[in-house]
Amino acid sequence: MKIKKNDLVQVISGKDKGLQGKVISVDPERQRVLVEGVNRITKHVKAGQPGGGAGGIEVTEAPIHVSNVMVVDPESKKPTRIRIREEQVERDGRTKTVRTRVSVRSGKDL
Questions:
Q1: How confident is the model at residue 100 (pLDDT cuts 50, 70, 90)?
Q2: Which residues, at least 6 apart from 92, have a Cβ–Cβ distance to it below 8 Å?
Q3: Please, are residues 105 and 78 in contact by the beta-carbon 8 Å criterion?
Q4: Which residues are within 8 A (CB) of 23 and not within 5 positions of it... i.e. 6 or more apart?
Q5: Closest CA to 21 of 64, 58, 59, 75
């Protein structure tokens, strides 16, 4: 997955289309991301449950599929695709391949 934790993303489809938020967590196995302030759901919590506190209605974020979000370009603040750039770097006589995520829109590193 090209989307990582703490990336700024924009929702491109669904009920929250157009909203931007920071990625809280990533689940590569299920291809889902949890985005701050997006796909909010209400959950009814019983009082007296362990970790539940006083109970009541709790509002929290639900995971969204990774295909419904795009990373926001740091320069233009618009959604962009991501490309991987590989560079050969020499350190202590060894060559090492360094992979860097690059914005397609502006060419800047992410």
A1: very high
A2: none
A3: yes
A4: 3, 4, 5, 6, 7, 8, 9, 33, 34, 35, 36
A5: 64
> Could you say which DSSP state residue 2 is in?
-
Amino acid at 58: E
**Contact between residue 43 and residue 60 where contact means Cβ atoms under 8 Å apart:** yes
Distances in Å between the Cα of 37 and the Cα atoms of 21, 34, 54, 63, 82 are 6, 9, 24, 11, 23
- Sorted by where each begins, the domain ranges of the chain are 1-72, 80-110
Q: Are 104 and 78 in contact (CB under 8 A)?
A: no
44 forms beta bridges with: 57
pLDDT of residue 51: 63
Write the burial class of residue 6 (CB in 10 Å: 0-12 exposed, 13-18 middle, 19+ buried). exposed
* Tokens of residue 82, six digits: 């991501």
CATH 2.30.30.30 holds for 1-72: yes
In the block, residue with structure tokens 């920071």: 22
Q: What is the pTM of this model?
A: 0.82
